[in-house]
Write a structure and sequence with these properties.
Order of helices and strands: HHHH
Radius of gyration: 13 Å
Length: about 90
């Protein structure tokens, strides 16, 4: 069975995904807070298996030790800067 997350992947390899994340962080360093970078890192780490991640805000909150509001704000900023793409999935 094909995992549903594979249809959302944008990278051929993990190395390609990591390089893209590093480039985005370097390009937007002054615009990103430490929390924004932590959220991106959690998303990147959870994306290793399929090239995409399906995460609850609570999972990210626990991983970085920040509030739900901080996580939501970081995700909005990462989407606005086109670092990540948010796909609504039910």
């Amino acid at each position: 069975m094909m995992h549903y997350l594979k249809e959302y992947t944008r990278f051929a390899t993990i190395a390609e995904m990591d390089a893209a994340a590093e480039q985005h962080v370097a390009r937007h360093w002054d615009e990103l807070t430490k929390s924004d970078r932590q959220v991106l890192d959690v998303i990147r780490r959870y994306s290793v298996k399929y090239g995409a991640a399906h995460l609850k805000h609570g999972t990210i909150e626990e991983a970085i030790g920040k509030s739900n509001a901080t996580v939501r704000r970081a995700i909005r900023k990462l989407v606005k800067l086109q670092i990540i793409q948010k796909v609504h999935y039910i």
